[in-house]
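Page 47, continued from p. 46.
Same chain as before, 567 aa.
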Amino acid sequence: MRPLLLLSILFIHYLTFSQEKYPTDYFGNPLGIPIVLSGSFGELRSNHFHAGLDIKTQGKEGLEVLSAADGYVSRIKVQQFGYGKAIYITHPNGFTTVYGHLSKFEDSIEEYVKSIQYKKEDYETGNLYFDEDMFPVKKGEIIGFSGDTGGSGGPHLHFEIRNTESENVINPLLFGLKVADSIPPTFQYLKVYALSDDARINNQKMDFQIPIKKVSKNQYAADRIAASGTIGFSASIFDRFDEAPNKNGLFSLEMLVNGKRFYYHDVETFSFAESKYLNLHIDYEHFKKYKMRYEKTFKLSSNKLSTYKDLINNGKIEVVSNQNYRVEIIAKDFEGNNSVLNVQIVGKETNAIFKKQKDTTAYKVVAKNFNKFQLENVTVAFPKKTFYEDVFLDFKVNDGIAQIHTPTIPLDKYFTLTFNVSKYSETEKELLYIANLEYPKYPKYQYTRKKDSTFYTTSKTLGNYALLTDNQKPIIKLLYFKDQQWITNSKTIKVKIDDVGSGIKDYRATIDNEWVLMEYNHKTKILTYNFSDKKLVDSKHIFKLVVSDNVGNTNEISTTFFKKQLN
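Result:
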């Protein structure tokens, strides 16, 4: 049996012209082979919800990917990051399927895409759009091969279903895709928050963890708390499928207070525009400090997610003295497996007095206004509504490092950071760039725009930034062959490239002075040219590669190889 990703499971018989909201396969899985997931729809990711399913490919590349249903290729995009090589198929009943991180496309599509790449002399194609006559496809037809391109963390297929008109993403499991799952979600930790000035929790006015324990397969209990005022909860939770050990996201999260629903959120569908509000859906500060995501069971007023339902007081609990409250936090996966965390609250007034700490910083940000601050050679400018709420900003410049608060506050828009570089010579300026220093040992290049005496960048992350110098050329190393070598049996040329400063910006490869397509795997730092792209004439050839970094340092290599043409 040929290897394939078996995506024909999805929509075979059930991507029909049904009038149902999400047409499903009433006959089950027609191929009888379960799909195993490494990522679920709506999972909590960095700054967004996961927009599809990540389907495991047993750690392999090159498995056949099939069209989920009849339709036509409406869009193709090849990019270094993101979805890598991706194909979009529009179906006649209002849905579009997306297949990402492919290693290559089906032959006729691959030939067309490469013609564009060679015409542009660029790996990245941008968006290529097609009408229905260019590449029509049938259900089960091969459209490409699985891979690891783009921002993938390993070989897999990223699969999406979108509403063709709105481009909102929809949970593919709603269409009948079957994944073995009998395991309920797991509660790891619980946090409680004092949300009003008069709120007290166990005689404290602060956010903190509440110990929890597992009492049965899907039942958890938290320590009882005494509280008053307005409080809220968040929890760290994950789910698992039967066939995979990796941690996945939930389908829904619900909170009942004395049996009444106060909060509900699920990942049935959402738009890309609203996905950024994930940073308000989670405890963002805790995540940035400890790399663990807690989902809140209360909603902030600036959170515009459409995934909430039946909210009472936005999920915030008003605790009254001498009243008891039974809170149930219910986590479910798509199959309906659920776990319940029970919390008992006793309403109790406290005499504890906590004075509100006054902010002494001079840099107050009024969220609705444009805000601009300048200190020494650094200027920072925040457009209107960059912040979700008013804040007092810590802003300092120490030893050339611009300390713009800490990266624990989520931003809605990009701010502009400008350095005055008039004290540097023109030669020094050429080698300077702006870097983010969240991880000081690994400075991260920020796209730096240079204009006379000022350099500036834009970012959505607060924290430390500095001007750094990169005076080192990129590193180039030939793999598996050397100068003047015969490589008749080789199918590819592979070269490793790296840069220890500002990072690789561009590369250009030629054979006999003609541009050739080299695909860059930024995870392995390897460039690959496939000899099947072009038929070489004669046996002696000159391969040349020029690599540039982000400040303009360049390095190049030129080598001669010999290759006989095999029939």
